Amino acid sequence: AQTVTQSQPEMSVQEAETVTLSCTYDTSENNYYLFWYKQPPSRQMILVIRQEAYKQQNATENRFSVNFQKAAKSFSLKISDSQLGDTAMYFCAFMNRDDKIIFGKGTRLHILP
Amino acid sequence: DTGVSQDPRHKITKRGQNVTFRCDPISEHNRLYWYRQTLGQGPEFLTYFQNEAQLEKSRLLSDRFSAERPKGSFSTLEIQRTEQGDSAMYLCASSLNPTGASEKLFFGSGTQLSVL
Q1: Which residues in A lie closer than 8 A to residue B109 (C-beta atoms)?
Q2: pLDDT digit string, tens, across residues A61-72
C-alpha cells in the first residue's frame, strides 16, 4: 500500500524568507503523480503544484517549486519569498494509476510578519 | 459558480441518527471522491466513483457508511446510526478523467459533521 509521510508537523518562518516542506512516500509503482495541496483556515483544499513521476524536470508555479527525487521517493516543496497568505496546512499527496489520492498528515506553516 | 458544491456546510446530529450529505461535482467531471478529515489530520480516502460506478470503498469504512452516484452526476454519502467518532469534515472532490489520464482534483468546501 502507498504511504505518504510528512515529518514536520509545524513550521514557522519570517515573511519573505524561503521555506522547504519535506515529504517522502512509499510505492512500488513506476508511474504516478505527486501533489502539494494547501488548506487555509477556511479548510478549502487548493492545489499548489503537481508533478508527474515520469518527468525528471521539477515542477514550478511562481514562488512554489518542488525537489522531486524519484529514487529516494522524496518530494519537497519550496516556497520562496513567503507571504502572510501562505499561512496554512500543507498536504503532500500521491496519486496512483487508479487515480486514488493518498494524503500525508500535513505540515502547519506559519508565516510571521 | 461552476465549482464542487457540498450541502449542508454544517450538520449537528445526535448519536444514533442517520445523516445524508450531498455533493454536486463540476458538471463534466466523471470522477467523484469522498474523503473524511479530522482536525489536524490529512484527508482520509473513503470511496470514489467513475460516473455511476463505485470503484473502491475504503476497508476502514464500516457498513454504516454508504455512498451512491445514481446518474453519474451528484453523489450522496449516508451514515447510519452515527457515532461520536464520525464527527469530522467530509470532503468531496471531482476530476475529469479522460482515457485514463490523471487530472487534478477540485475540492468542495466540505460538510462539517458534529455528533453529540
Answers
A1: 42-44
A2: 999 999 999 999
